[in-house]
Structures are given as structure tokens and as C-alpha cells.
């Protein structure tokens, strides 16, 4: 272990009961506490740990952990309130990739998850150090530690040797392990949020005696909303505010409040947080805005030191409408209507809009959190709360940033299997950002990255708060469609045309009704009705006739959903209200979604009461079609089983790491790989490359061309120098070279035009005809590696025909990646042509994804063109850029 590894930063994480611990490397100054950790153990626990009891065991264990750094050894400890409560360590003996591991937990702190949490962090550190397995010895009667190893989620083998058990734990990270970590994290997270979202007592610090302060408004909301548990104000100048008992300080309160609302000026926030922590408070809600960097750090330090969860600062507040709690710690104008939608936002204004919209629709809110500057509690936390609260059936998010998108993606993917998760895709203007480093970087935008996250996680992404509410109304009230076939029924032809246009533009299908259905409808509807799709029932349609028409189509029509566009007319047969009433008399047996379009409707979306529940009604056809299209996408996502990351053969991970380390040793600042190093790295992952040769002189180029010439004798020459990215733009490529004379002339041309730059040339056989594609990776600092795919060649950026997915790619992801671009029909055999080798194309993308996932130093990879033919897939040109970067485990349990 090197010095920098030993002095790594501490991190905070949650135990099973929701309390916070600090995990950090052992330092020399920890000797006394570590020795005390062992000395305070019972004789029985000491025997289980050391296989015997010795007066020197504690001192020797502390000596070992606090000794000078040495190769292959690492020790991590967990501490709470400055007290060491656990130690985990491993030692390879200085060589090899297997390490002996041990764990010790303080007396009286077993069964709280501290040992498991510490081992998870040790496993992550070991992986980063290239260790592939732990070996641990335990007495066979030590059931607790054996259960800890068995429940990690890693493959563990046991070998019994008399009274001892030798456990070998493989450290390879797979979905089983990640799911086990997620489940432990979910339980701990939900436990930590109890004091915040289900507090047994609340205190408001900063509630003034006169109207106008935010603190007073929140205190009023809490009291007026009927908060059912103990409520206090903190104000040294009052004994009662709004009829709520007031005390001079948090420490003077008769009980330690679970939740403290902080509404004091920015300069006083950290001091209040410190006082709350010392008093035993478990959660803070900081509505104060305008904290500077020093004040912000002091606030977060107090929360971490005392194990308090934090919402804010700069937020609207939190609400929980559970009738047994009735917590409304916000300063919104009105109380949210109780209901079943969970809402988490960063913007207070957006939060108010969503609360009002959901209340107006009648959906209501289960739990609301305005996260503000999001120092701690995040959208990921709220998703896990809704997953477990047994009240929420719809999750609405408006997040302007993501702290850990890869962990968020796994959580959202799991939650979205149970309830719809909707978001507003905010910040789309970043799509204009372009990096000039490579085709990959130029194509990758934050909008594309967020879109990949939402698509893979099954999140319904809308473009506005209005669209979010419109979609929520349909998903809340209607079943999901089995497909995209839509029937349109209207009493006004023009309204039907508008609805048909909207559906077509959203990618929904409008099939013609079957002949039998046409005959039955013509027999039912008034004279002059037109039965196609849309079905124009005419302005003369009666309430009863419309009800029969809709019922027949829903039961017999071969459609998956229905839109009914109604316009009030002066015809006496039925009024607009009559027609709506006919529609809302829908029988309970309908299992297909139906929505109404009423062009005269004042509100963008309403929920109409029906015999079978509620029916969404829209003022605009496009709003109804958009909502229905989102429902189709969700149904399609749910219909597919969760994908898996395929196992690849021929991957040499250790050799790839060696190639990267060798390059970065020689180039500490990183850079673009030369052709030889690039080819070697691609070879580690079995990525198919066109035959090639490197030449630095004219004669070497001629010899190389002779070796590479195919049956037609033609070769390609590409110039190279450090920093060259777009060879065609620089005119550093010669195609279709025949014979030695042309090869020599091409070399001399490059040597002359790029004198002082050219370091050599790459020669390749002239490729066969095929489809030129583009594949690449860009490593996003926040989102991780993003894999891009689309049409290649020199016009790849101009045509911008690209799709993207976040790595690691599953089998479903890679299929979606190939089928998403507009050029996809070329791959599947357009106009009678033979399809390209799709299996090889999938394997290429999976290998690219594997390379990006395993090598955090890979900043960019750019394969253009990739030649796809019926006979195979080959990378004709590749560029890879490396940067010095330590591995980062996005799934490691830790607080922000």
C-alpha cells in the first residue's frame, strides 16, 4: 500500500439502523483506540477473533494495523462520533492477487451491519488494487462471521480443516453482488429517512413572532395542517408562537426533536446544526438560502459528525400526507391534497406547480420533498422511500443534477418495475455544447447522456411540467396499452383529423377497423357517420349511440387504446356533457386505456369521474397523444425482462491494465495512443481490426504494402503524428494505392506536406464495400462511460445519426443501440440487400462497453469507420485517449 492510498479521504455511510458511520484508512494515531477495541471485547469474542486468548493479542493487532505502509496491505476502520467501532484489513504478503482478510467489530455493536459495510468498502479497495479474491479463516462455531461472508452476495467457497473453516471469497462484481448491496443500502436508507419523513417530534428554529418570516410560515403550516405529534418553536424572545410552545434553544427543548426546521440567516445555520447534533437530532430541513462555501461545508460537517440526514439548504420543505402524521413542513401557499404521488424536486417553484397540479387533478401527494441545493438527501433516497412506504403508486421527479447517476439508474430501474417513475428532462440547452476532440466527444451531449439514463432505467422523461402532469394523469387513471394501435372516435371530423395527426407524429399506429366492426358501427351510428380511423360518429350522435360505439371498439376492434375527441354542438341529439357522460359510463371490464379530447376545455388536463374510476380529458390532441405514447413506451419496457451483461470470451483484462499503466507511466498527463499501442489495447478485448502495418520510412512502407496487398493489390496509407484526429480533414490519407511506385509517391507526399509532424504511416488493405458505421465511447465524469453508435464515415457529425446507452451494456441495451439510429434499415437488409453480420456488430459494441467499464482511464474511444458486411464487422480506424484516473466504484455505499 502506498502513502496516497493510506491517506485516502474518509467517507460516510449508513448502518442498517440508519445511523451514520465514518469509514477511513487507519492512521498511526489510531493505535490506542484500536487496542481498546480489542481489549474491550469479551473473552469469547477474542477467542473467536484470534482462535485463542492472549494478553498481547490486542496490542499486536493494533501494531499490525498502524505499522508503516507496506505493499499489499490495507486497513480500514469505522468510527462513530470519533470512536473506532470496527476494523477490516487484508494482506497479500506483498505478492499475488489473493489476500488474507479479517474483520473485528466492537463489543455490543454486532447485528447492526457495521461489519458488512466495512467489508464492502474493503472489497472495493481490493478490486482497485488488482486483488481478485479474499481468504479468511474462522472457527466453525463463529456463525456470525460465516453468515457475514455468505450474505455478501459474492461467490464464497468453504473448506473445513478441523475446527476451522477456510473461506475463499471471489471479488468479481456481478449483478448478484450489486443487488445484495442495493438491498442493504435500501434498508439503511429508509431507516435513516424515518426521522425526516415520519418524525415523532419537530422543532422550527427561526419562527418569528410577527408575520412575514419563512420560519413562522412553516410553523403555521405544521400546526394548521394538523401535525399529530409533538411540535416546538425555538425563539429566545418568546414562550409561545402561534400557540406552539417556544424555547430559547434546541438544547432547552424537553425532548431531542427528530426533525429540526432551520430558517435562520445563512451565517447562523452551521451553529444551529451543531447544537442540533449535540442535542441528538436525527434530521435537518434547512430552508435558508445563500450559504457561502465555508458555511456550506460547516453545515455538512455537522450533519456528518452527528449522523443527521439533511434536506436543503435553499428548499421549500417536506410533506407527508399520511393521515396518522399530517406533516406539512413547507411554506407553500396551500396544503397538498393527500394521495398517492411521490414528488421530489430541486426547484421550489416547480414543486409548488406540481403540488397544485396533482391536488387539482385529484391524484394528490403521498410524500413531497423539495431538495434544494441537495447537499445530502437526493432523488435516489426518495425513490427508495417510495418503494417501501406502501402508499406511493406514482413517482414524479424534477432533478437538475445527479450526484451518482449509475446508482440512481439501478435504483430507478428497480422501482420503475413496480410504479411509474416520471421526470422532466431539465437542462436540455446543454445539447448545444460540442467538444472538438473527436467524433465521439462531438456527438456526446448531456441531453443524449440523460436520455440514455432515462431510457435504460425505464423512466418516463417529459419535456415540461405540463407534459409531466398530463402523462401522470393517464398513467394514474388508466391501464397500460398492450400495443400502439389507437382508435379515434369523434363527433366532429376536424377534431378527429387533429387527433390523427397528433397520434401519427407520436409514432402511434392508426389501423383501419375490421370489416365486421365497420358493419356493426354503421348499423349503430346515425346516418352520415363515417367509419374509418378516425370514426366520425357525426354531430347527430346520441349519448347512447356513442356509448355503444365506444364499447364495441374497445371489446372487438383490435385496438390497444382509444382517444375520443368531443366537440359541443347545437344539434339536439346530445349535448357535450351528454357525450362525456356516455363515455364515463365505461364498463369495468375494459382493460384498455381511453382518454378524452375536449378542445373547449379550459384546463390542459382534467380527470373525469367514471363508473370504473377516472378518465383523463385533454384540451389539446397532442397532449393526449403524448401521454398515450409515454404509456406505450412504459408498457414495452415492462414487457421485456431485465437485461443481463453477456459473458465475453477472449478478454485479457490484466494485460489491458498493464498497457494502460505503461502508457501513462510514459505520458503522465495522458493523451491519444499511437497506432501500435491502440491496436494492442483493442486486441486485449478481442475487437476486430483490419490488418495493418506501421512504417517510418519509404522502404518500410513498400515492404509493408507487399505483405498487406489483397487479391486486387490495393492498399491505403494514413499519416500519423501525435494529436492528429481527423485524417481526412487534414488530407493525410491516400486511398487505392497500386504498386510500389504509388506507395512511394504517397509516402513522399505525406513526408513533404507534414514535415516536422509526421512520425510514420499506417498501411492497410483497401477495404471491401460495406456499410460504414461509427462506434465510440466518451467517459462522463458524472455519468460514467457512454457508448455511442450510428452512421459513420466523414459525414458522421453532419448527419448526427447516433444513439447512445450507458455502459455496461446489457443484451437488451446493445439491441436497442443498433436499432435506434435512422440508418438501422441498412443493417437489416434494405431494398433486398443482405443484412450485415448483426451478431458480430453486437459483440463489437459489447466489447467496447467492457473496455470502457473496466478502464476508467479511457477518456474517449473513436472507431470510425467500422465496416459492416454480411461476412463480418471490422474496425478500419480507431483512436483512443487515456487520462490518469483512479477507479471509482459508483455502487459503493456512501453518503454524498
Brief overview:
This protein is of the alpha/beta class and 896 residues long.
Q: Structural class, please?
A: alpha/beta
Largest sheet: 8 strands, mixed
Characterize the quaternary organization of these chains.
Answer: single chain
The number of strands is 40
* Overall average residue pLDDT: 91
- Strand-residue fraction? 15-25%
The rounded distance between the terminal residues' Cα atoms is 26 Å
Radius of gyration: 32 Å
**Fraction of residues in helix:** 25-40%
Strand order of the largest sheet: 1-2-3-4-5-6-8-7
What's the tally of helices? 29
Shape: flat
**Low-pLDDT runs:** 1-6, 430-440
Topology:
Elements: H1 3-6, E1 11-14, E2 20-25, H2 31-39, H3 43-50, H4 57-66, E3 73-80, E4 83-91, E5 98-105, H5 114-128, E6 133-139, H6 143-150, E7 156-161, E8 164-170, H7 175-197, E9 201-205, H8 214-224, E10 230-234, E11 240-241, E12 244-247, E13 259-262, H9 266-279, E14 283-286, H10 293-306, E15 309-311, E16 317-320, E17 327-330, E18 338-345, H11 348-361, E19 365-370, H12 379-388, E20 394-398, H13 405-415, E21 421-424, H14 439-443, H15 446-457, E22 460-462, H16 465-477, E23 486-490, H17 493-505, H18 515-524, E24 530-531, E25 535-536, H19 543-556, E26 561-566, H20 576-583, E27 594-598, E28 605-610, E29 613-618, H21 621-639, H22 653-666, E30 671-672, H23 675-684, E31 693-695, H24 698-708, E32 714-720, E33 733-738, H25 739-753, E34 760-765, E35 771-780, E36 784-791, H26 796-799, E37 802-806, H27 811-819, H28 824-827, H29 838-854, E38 858-869, E39 872-875, E40 878-882
Parallel strand pairs: 5-6, 9-10, 9-13, 10-12, 13-14, 14-15, 18-19, 18-20, 20-21, 21-22, 23-25, 23-26, 26-27, 27-29
Antiparallel strand pairs: 1-2, 2-3, 3-4, 4-5, 6-8, 7-8, 11-12, 16-17, 16-19, 24-25, 28-29, 30-40, 31-34, 32-33, 32-34, 35-36, 35-38, 36-37, 38-39, 38-40
Helix pairs in contact: 2-4, 7-12, 9-10, 12-13, 13-15, 16-21, 17-21, 18-19, 19-20, 22-23, 24-25, 27-29
Amino acid at each position: 500500500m502506498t502513502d496516497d492510498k493510506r491517506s485516502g479521504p474518509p467517507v460516510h455511510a449508513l448502518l442498517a439502523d440508519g445511523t451514520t458511520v465514518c469509514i477511513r484508512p487507519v492512521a498511526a494515531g489510531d493505535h490506542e483506540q484500536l487496542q481498546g477495541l480489542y481489549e474491550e471485547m469479551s473473552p469469547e469474542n477474542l477467542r473467536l477473533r484470534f482462535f485463542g486468548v492472549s494478553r498481547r493479542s490486542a496490542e499486536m493487532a493494533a501494531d499490525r494495523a498502524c505499522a508503516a505502509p507496506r505493499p499489499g496491505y490495507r486497513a480500514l476502520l469505522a468510527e462513530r462520533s470519533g470512536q473506532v467501532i470496527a476494523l477490516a484489513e487484508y494482506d497479500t504478503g506483498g505478492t499475488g492477487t489473493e489476500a488474507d482478510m479479517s474483520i473485528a467489530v466492537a463489543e455490543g455493536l454486532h447485528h447492526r451491519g457495521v461489519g458488512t459495510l466495512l467489508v464492502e468498502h474493503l472489497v472495493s479497495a481490493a478490486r482497485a488494487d488488482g486483488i481478485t479474491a479474499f481468504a479468511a479463516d474462522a472457527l466453525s462455531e463463529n456463525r456470525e462471521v460465516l453468515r457475514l461472508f455468505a450474505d455478501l452476495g459474492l461467490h464464497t467457497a468453504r473448506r473445513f480443516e478441523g475446527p476451522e473453516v477456510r473461506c475463499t471469497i471471489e471479488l468479481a462484481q456481478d449483478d448478484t453482488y450489486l443487488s445484495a448491496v442495493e438491498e442493504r443500502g435500501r434498508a439503511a436508507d429508509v431507516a435513516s429517512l424515518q426521522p425526516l419523513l415520519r418524525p415523532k417530534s419537530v422543532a422550527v428554529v427561526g419562527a418569528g413572532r410577527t408575520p412575514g418570516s419563512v420560519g413562522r410560515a412553516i410553523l403555521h403550516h405544521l400546526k394548521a395542517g394538523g401535525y399529530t405529534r409533538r411540535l416546538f418553536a425555538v425563539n429566545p424572545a418568546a414562550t409561545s408562537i402561534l400557540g406552539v410552545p417556544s424555547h430559547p434553544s434546541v438544547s432547552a427543548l424537553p425532548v431531542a426533536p427528530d426533525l429540526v426546521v432551520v430558517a435562520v440567516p445563512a451565517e447562523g445555520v452551521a451553529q444551529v446544526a451543531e447544537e442540533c447534533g449535540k442535542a441528538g437530532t436525527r434530521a435537518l430541513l434547512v430552508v435558508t438560502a445563500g450559504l457561502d462555501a465555508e458555511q456550506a461545508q460547516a453545515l455538512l460537517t455537522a450533519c456528518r459528525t452527528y449522523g443527521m440526514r439533511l434536506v436543503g439548504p435553499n428548499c421549500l420543505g417536506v410533506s407527508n400526507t399520511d393521515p396518522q402524521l399530517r406533516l406539512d413542513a413547507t411554506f407553500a401557499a396551500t396544503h397538498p391534497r393527500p394521495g398517492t404521488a411521490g414528488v421530489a424536486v430541486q426547484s421550489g417553484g416547480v414543486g409548488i406547480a406540481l403540488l397544485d397540479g396533482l391536488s387539482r387533478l385529484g391524484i394528490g401527494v403521498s410524500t413531497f420533498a423539495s431538495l434544494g441545493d441537495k447537499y445530502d438527501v437526493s432523488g435516489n433516497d426518495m425513490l427508495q422511500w417510495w418503494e417501501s412506504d406502501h402508499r406511493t403508486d406514482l413517482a414524479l421527479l424534477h432533478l437538475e443534477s445527479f450526484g451518482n447517476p449509475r446508482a440512481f439508474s439501478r435504483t430507478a430501474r428497480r422501482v420503475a418495475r413496480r410504479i411509474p417513475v416520471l421526470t422532466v428532462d431539465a437542462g436540455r440547452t446543454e445539447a448545444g455544447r460540442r467538444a472538438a476532440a473527436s467524433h465521439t466527444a462531438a456527438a456526446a451531449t448531456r441531453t443524449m447522456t440523460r436520455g440514455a439514463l432515462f431510457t435504460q432505467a425505464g423512466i418516463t422523461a417529459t419535456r415540461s411540467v405540463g407534459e409531466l402532469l398530463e402523462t401522470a394523469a393517464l398513467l394514474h387513471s388508466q391501464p397500460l396499452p398492450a400495443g400502439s394501435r389507437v382508435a379515434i372516435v369523434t363527433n366532429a371530423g376536424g377534431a378527429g383529423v387533429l387527433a390523427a395527426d397528433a397520434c401519427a407524429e407520436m409514432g402511434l399506429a392508426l389501423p383501419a377497423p375490421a370489416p365486421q366492426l365497420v358493419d356493426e358501427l354503421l348499423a349503430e351510428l346515425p346516418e352520415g357517420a363515417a367509419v374509418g380511423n378516425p370514426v366520425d360518429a357525426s354531430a347527430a350522435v346520441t349519448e347512447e349511440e356513442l356509448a355503444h360505439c365506444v364499447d364495441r371498439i374497445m371489446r372487438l376492434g383490435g385496438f390497444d387504446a382509444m382517444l375520443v375527441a368531443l366537440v359541443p354542438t347545437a344539434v339536439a341529439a346530445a349535448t357535450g356533457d351528454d357525450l362525456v357522460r356516455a363515455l364515463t359510463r365505461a364498463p369495468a371490464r375494459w382493460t384498455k386505456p381511453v382518454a378524452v379530447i375536449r378542445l373547449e376545455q379550459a384546463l390542459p388536463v382534467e380527470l373525469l369521474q367514471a363508473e370504473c374510476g377516472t378518465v383523463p380529458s385533454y384540451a389539446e390532441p397532442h397532449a393526449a397523444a403524448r401521454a398515450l405514447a409515454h404509456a406505450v413506451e412504459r408498457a414495452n419496457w415492462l414487457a421485456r425482462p431485465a437485461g443481463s451483461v453477456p459473458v465475453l470470451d477472449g478478454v485479457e483484462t490484466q494485460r489491458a491494465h498493464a498497457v494502460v499503466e505503461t502508457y501513462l507511466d510514459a505520458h503522465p498527463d495522458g493523451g491519444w495512443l499511437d497506432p501500435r499501442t491502440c491496436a494492442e489495447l483493442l486486441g486485449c478485448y478481442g475487437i476486430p481490426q483490419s490488418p495493418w502495418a506501421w512504417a517510418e520510412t519509404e522502404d518500410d512502407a513498400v515492404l509493408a504494402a507487399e505483405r498487406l496487398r489483397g487479391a486486387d493489390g490495393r492498399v491505403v496509407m494514413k499519416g500519423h503524428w501525435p494529436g492528429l484526429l481527423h485524417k481526412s480533414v487534414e488530407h493525410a490519407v491516400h486511398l487505392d494505392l497500386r504498386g510500389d511506385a504509388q506507395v512511394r509517391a504517397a509516402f513522399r507526399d505525406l513526408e513533404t506536406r507534414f514535415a516536422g509532424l509526421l512520425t510514420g504511416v499506417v498501411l492497410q488493405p483497401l477495404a471491401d464495400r460495406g456499410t460504414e458505421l461509427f462506434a465510440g465511447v466518451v467517459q462522463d465524469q458524472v455519468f460514467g462511460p457512454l457508448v455511442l453508435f450510428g452512421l459513420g464515415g466523414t459525414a458522421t457529425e453532419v448527419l448526427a445519426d447516433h444513439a447512445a446507452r450507458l455502459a455496461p451494456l446489457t443484451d437488451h441495451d446493445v439491441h436497442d443501440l443498433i436499432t435506434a439510429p435512422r440508418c438501422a434499415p441498412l443493417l437489416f437488409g434494405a431494398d433486398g440487400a443482405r443484412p450485415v453480420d448483426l451478431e458480430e456488430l453486437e459483440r463489437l459494441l459489447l466489447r467496447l462497453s467492457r473496455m470502457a467499464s473496466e478502464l476508467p482511464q479511457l477518456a474517449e474511444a473513436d472507431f470510425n469507420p467500422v465496416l459492416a458486411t454480411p461476412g463480418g464487422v471490422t474496425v478500419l480506424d480507431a483512436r483512443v485517449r487515456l487520462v490518469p484516473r483512479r477507479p471509482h466504484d459508483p455502487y459503493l455505499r456512501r453518503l454524498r
